[in-house]
Amino acid sequence: MTARIHPLLGALAILVFLFLLAPLVIIIGASLSNTTYLTFPPQGLTLRWFANIFEISAFRNTALTSFQVAILGTGLSLLIGIPAAYALNRYRIGLPKWLGTLFVLPILVPEIVFGFSLLKSVTIGMGLPVYPSLIIGHALLVLPYSVRVVGASLASFDFSVEEAAISLGCPPLKTFFTVVLPNIRAGVIAAFILAFITSINDVSISVFLTGPGISTLPIQILAHMEQFFDPTIASVSVLLMLVTVGVMAIVEMTLGLTFLTK
Amino acid sequence: MTVSLTIENLSAHYGQTQVLKDLSISVAAGELVSLLGSSGCGKTTTLRIVAGFLQPTSGNVKLGDRDLTTLPAHARDIGLVFQNYALFPHLTVQENVAFGLKQRGISSADRAKRATAMLERVGLANLADRLPGALSGGQKQRVALARALVIEPPLLMFDEPLSNLDAKLRVDMRVEIRQLQKANGTTSLYVTHDQEEAFSISDRVAIMNAGRIMQLDTPEVLYQKPANAFVARFVGFENLIPMKTVARDGAIVTVEAAGGARLHLSQDVFGPIKDDFVLATRPDGLVVRQEGEGIPTTLGTRTYLGRAYQYKCETAAGEITANGALSELFEPGAKAVLVPVPEQCCILAPEK
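Output (structure tokens, whole complex):
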């Protein structure tokens, strides 16, 4: 027996999927177009715009910077986020409620405001060079994911397990690494992935924090588009999409995607 | 090497609230003592202080000659069994049991041998390679027990270990826990809110209320001779009837309940009787009679208990619950007399 679906509901569902997928189809189409300007449907098929990305050194350099910033920024956010999430969950009863909200602020504040305030405080205020400010900025941007996603894992962790380990003679810090961390592994990986993707796609923070000689890939895409309106932009976008899809595929194969939506 | 546990003058606070008030208990070497009380009475707080998870405001905890009070929890060498098992979800049954041995730097061959031997004792050797998630509640608690016992701790502590199990398994498990505890001769502290469980498993039971021990004694004494009104009520003395002495004639004391009902009590049976006291009985400690020396009553609701009928009785001294024989049926509304059975009554100080 199959459930009956109202024809209108079915049509609506198809429209939603079209709406979600159409931009992707258009981008992929445009990236293959054998024209010097962005167009859809593609006129002729070519891969030369993909080749073009690798010929432009600015794309290579900024892609490298983007990966470095995403990995280091995400790593830094986890270094802060995991202990913070642990403290927020372990000592929930003794802590004020607003403390948890504090760590979500980077998501709540408009990104453009957040980016500008980082420029004022980190780059200008503290006089830090571009590269470290980028990493700090991205770490703060993705900190909410670290705290929230790791926190969600910890919320279902039974802290009496930790006490059991301690009672069996395991010192507290060692207990954290041998008992707590292995049990929130999925949460830490999920946080890393969400944070990494957010960081690598970020424009609004980076636009304030990039500077002479150092830029990230999304900023370079914008800059390139202002000068050349050619399909290179579309092909870079496709590559970025493929990176995201690749990461998701790894997640699906190792942990299953459901744990991202849990 | 069995040692005694001594808890002296323990006080503890959560913020402004005092949860333990000058609490002292000593558990003899090899003895199992239960802390029994409703939630919030301080029994779990006491256990957590002994385990080292909470710091007392004052007082100290000694295990043999060793003062534990300021020792960190991981250095106390205490076997703990938790209500929710608290097994390591990412380790196999075998690795769970071997965990404490590993912390003690025991070689992996020795660890495996001792963990296996302990798993055999709790009957789970065939599940050694499973993860805890694949076990039933009873099996989980056996693993937890094996994990706590394998380190051969001088003190074992149980925090409501059977509360998450179903009724039949609870009974089996408590017998098993008691057998293992006796065989090892491990000094034990057992926390529970279940009276039957505490009475069946313990050498002695401490009944706690509001951060104090109301009475610490063997289950038999607690059940038959509660020392105060709180304990009496806790062990099922439902009727606490305030009385006043009106006349004394040698060992025989004439007492009067509210409403003027008079009884003659012998100090040979009850011990010294004060001028103001409470007569405490279970429903079985009062016989419902047509007439005689007792407390006059109008019978209310009747309930069939199988072994007897239970009556709610209106008296001038308040509502009283009494059990009547099956052979003598009284109708609701009938006038009757409640006659105390001396052996089943206690004389206690009035409640403040």
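Chain B has a mean pLDDT of 93.
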